[in-house]
Amino acid sequence: MMNEQIVSLAWTGLHLTPWKLIGLTGAFMFGSRWLVQFLASRKAGRPVIPRLFWYMSLLGSAMTLSYFLFSSKQDAVGVLQNLFPAFTAAYSLYLDIRHGRRTRAEGERV
């Protein structure tokens, strides 16, 4: 069912399946995280990476990874291309959350 064309979107001329929509949404999210980083850096006047960047990285990687794993594509290149960024994003998000908690706790003690 997830690999069958969405008939209601046939008018677009594209062969869209639920898995393809998940993959496209993930790719869009993964790519647009750079816009989030650009806007945050512009606002701060220096290079910064907001937490939303890591959430978008993790979710975008997970969505495109699931597309390459579970759709009819079953593409090993796509799996590898999205597996490593997912781990990196998850670890960076973990560090960002942990550092944020520590910073807030230290600020409350002062």
Your description of this structure?
Helix content is 74%, strand content 0%. With 110 residues, the chain is an all-alpha fold. Helix 1 packs antiparallel against helix 2 (51-70) and helix 2 (51-70) packs antiparallel against helix 3 (76-109). The longest helix is centred in the C-terminal third of the chain and has 34 residues, at 76-109. The radius of gyration is 18 Å and the shape is elongated. The mean pLDDT is 88.
Cα(first) to Cα(last) distance is 58 Å
Structural class: mainly alpha
Q: Runs with pLDDT <50, length 5+?
A: none
> Any idea what the shape is?
elongated
What is the helix tally?
A: 3
* Overall strand count: 0
Largest sheet: none
What does the radius of gyration come to? Answer: 18 Å
β-strand amount = under 5%
| Average pLDDT metric | 88
Helix content: over 70%
Q: Secondary-structure element sequence?
A: HHH
Oligomer: single chain
Features:
110 residues, single chain, 3 helices
Short description:
With 110 residues, the protein is an all-alpha fold. The chain has three helices and no strands. The chain is elongated, with a radius of gyration of 18 Å.
Topology:
Blueprint: H1 18-44, H2 51-70, H3 76-109
